Structures are given as structure tokens and as C-alpha cells.
Amino acid sequence: VAKKSGLGQFEFYSDALGQRLSERHHLSQDLKQALEQDELFMVYQPIVLTSEQTVTGYEALIRWQRKGEFVSPELLISVAEEYGLIHEIGQWVFREALSEASQSLSPSQFMSINVSVNQFLHKDFVEIVKCEIERAGVDPERVELEITETAIVSDLDWTSKQLAQLKSLGLRISIDDFGVAYSSIGRLKSLMVDKIKIDRSFIAGIAGSHRDQGIIEAILLLASKLDLSIVAEGVETNEQAQLLARMNCNTMQGFLFSKPEKMDQLNLS
Ligand code: C2E
Ligand code: MG
Ligand code: MG
Ligand code: MG
């Protein structure tokens, strides 16, 4: 009896797993088509210098409306990585965001572009970035790449090489979602990174938690010692913005200022 139910259980799990796999497979096929048929689009979220009340730059974020419903970018990117579509999608993101940058941004504003792990580690990545920047005619110093901690902890030698090449083109590098993955503080010292984006989970907690405030203060201190810029992500309330300003963190991004929107729908002064 035990054997039988054991077998039954196995079939149950195997079905559920099979279903999940075929859903992802299906998604990857739709994604491929979406890419070919121009169903993907980019939205942009302002990054604000609150002390001057100016928009210093924008973060580009991908969107996909599939059969009327939005697919989360995290799912989209993980499926793209798994099914080998990430390079094509990554290049498309660069082309879109840089063309928008050349058309819509003022010369003092930068465009920040997210880069996934496999995209960043690929041997042709630097060449593709270079090519897309030249095509758009944007000053490379106005282009930032957002890379997660996972990307920089995977292969230190290769990461250093990629970063050095990107830096020599003039680009700036920021560490996205800083503080959530297992950490790279030691690596920040040796890697050519310019900016840290404090993960929004810490910002969400600051109004009620001295611990979260303490973590942010520690990150700010680290950043100032290492000469890194800082952005606070996911600022949603005035209280959070005021607390951050009091800690001397004046560059912020979040729904308080603006949701990500198509560029022509952002109404900013
Ligand atoms: P991320 O790079 O950390 O982007 C910030 C995410 O936080 C965005 O979610 C943004 O819409 C959201 N957000 C901004 N302000 C607030 C706020 O005040 N409150 C809350 N609750 N959320 C806020 P989104 O657009 O869903 O993107 C999720 C993640 O997907 C991104 O996290 C990034 O890792 C990835 N992603 C998005 N677009 C791209 C892309 O073009 N390429 C790559 N490789 N990854 C992308
Ligand atoms: Mg980002
Ligand atoms: Mg982030
Ligand atoms: Mg994130």
C-alpha cells in the first residue's frame, strides 16, 4: 500500500512540475513572438534629486501585455534567461531606451538600464552595448547600467574585466537592490562601481523601524567612504522621504514622485 501511494504521490508531483514547465515553455514561445511583433514596450521612472527638486535621470523598465494581462518583468526575464532569449531582449531594451534617451532627455539627464545576470556575463555584452550607444548617438557618460549583486558575486575575474571595459567606454555602473542578496561589500572595494541603489525593502521599513534606519545609515556611511553615489528605491510616503533627507540621502525614486510610465505620459516640469 505504501508503495502504491508513494507512486501516486510521485505522479502527482510530476504532473504539477510538468504543467509548470509547459507553462514556462508556452510563455517563452509567446515572448519570442511578442518580440517579433513589437508587443513589448518600455516605461520610465524618474530618479529625483529632492534637495533641488530636479529629475536627474530615468530608469527604463520593460513591460509586456500578454492577452490583455501584464506579465511581471521578473517572470519575463527569468523565462528569457532560461530559453535563451535574454540577449535578443536585452539588446532590444538597449535600443529602445537609448533611442528614447536621445529624443526625450535633457543633456544633463541620464538613462539607467537594467541588465540581468546572464546578459551581463555574456562575452558579446560589451560589444553590443557599445554598438547600441553609438547607434543612438548618446553620450556614454549619460548611460547607467543596473546590475544586481548576484551578477557581481558569480565570477570575479570575468566581472572585473566586463566592468573595466564598460567603464572605459564611459558608462556608469550601479548595484541594484543593494542589501538583499548575500553581500558584496568586500567586492565593492575592488570593483569599478559608481552607485548603490538601496533596496526598497529597507525604505519600506524606515518609518517604523530603528533597525532599518540603522541599516540605511550604515549603507550611507559605506557609500561616502567608498565615494559611491546613492539612490533610495521605492519611496512611497512623505515621511520616508523626509527621514531619508534628514540622513542626507537626497536622491530618490518611487511612487511618491512618479510611477513608471511611457515617456510622453510622464508629466514632469
Ligand atoms: P528593479 O530594477 O529593482 O526595478 C524597480 C521596481 O520597483 C520596478 O518594478 C518598479 O516599478 C518598482 N517600483 C518603483 N517605485 C516603487 C515604489 O515606490 N513602490 C513599489 N512597491 N514598487 C516600486 P518592475 O517594473 O515590476 O520591475 C521588476 C524588476 O524586473 C526590476 O527590479 C528589474 O530587476 C527587472 N526588470 C525590469 N525591466 C527590466 C529590463 O528591461 N531588463 C532587465 N534585465 N530586467 C528588468
Ligand atoms: Mg533597477
Ligand atoms: Mg531595484
Ligand atoms: Mg528589484
From TrEMBL:
<protein>
    <submittedName>
        <fullName>Bifunctional diguanylate cyclase/phosphodiesterase</fullName>
    </submittedName>
</protein>
<feature type="domain" description="EAL">
    <location>
        <begin position="24"/>
        <end position="269"/>
    </location>
</feature>
